[in-house]
Each structure stands twice: as structure tokens, then as C-alpha cells.
Fold this protein.
Amino acid sequence: MTGRSAVPDTELAEELLQIEEADAWFEYLESTRGQGHGRYQELEPWAWARLTQRLRAVRARRARLRPAAA
């Protein structure tokens, strides 16, 4: 891999991470939207934990990506 091709690869990886982050938020919204109060109370802690887990994974991959870009 040459220095010239590393930048587009890094940009592509960053874009994919942004898409995955947005997907995590959309999953959370889809899971919690339109639920009755009782069902929301049951579902929201699970949805929040899932969102947090996915965002943590995105941040970890983004952190590994940044040293490669430097």
C-alpha cells in the first residue's frame, strides 16, 4: 500500500464508521418509537444498552483508525 492510497482508504473507513454510528442511532429510535408507556419502560433500557455497546465499538475502531492516518 502506498501513501497515496492510504488516505482514500482511511476516508472510506471513516465514512463507513459514520454510517454505522448513524445506523446504531436509527436502530435505537426504531426500537423505542411508537411503544406504549409500559412497553417503552421495558424496552428502553435494552435499546440504550445496545446503542451504547454499538457506539463504543465504533469509537474503538475509530481510535485504531486514527494512528494509521497519522
Observations:
- The helical segments are 3-32, 37-69.
- The chain is about 90% helix and 0% strand.
- The chain has a mean pLDDT of 89.
- The first helix runs from residue 3 to 32.
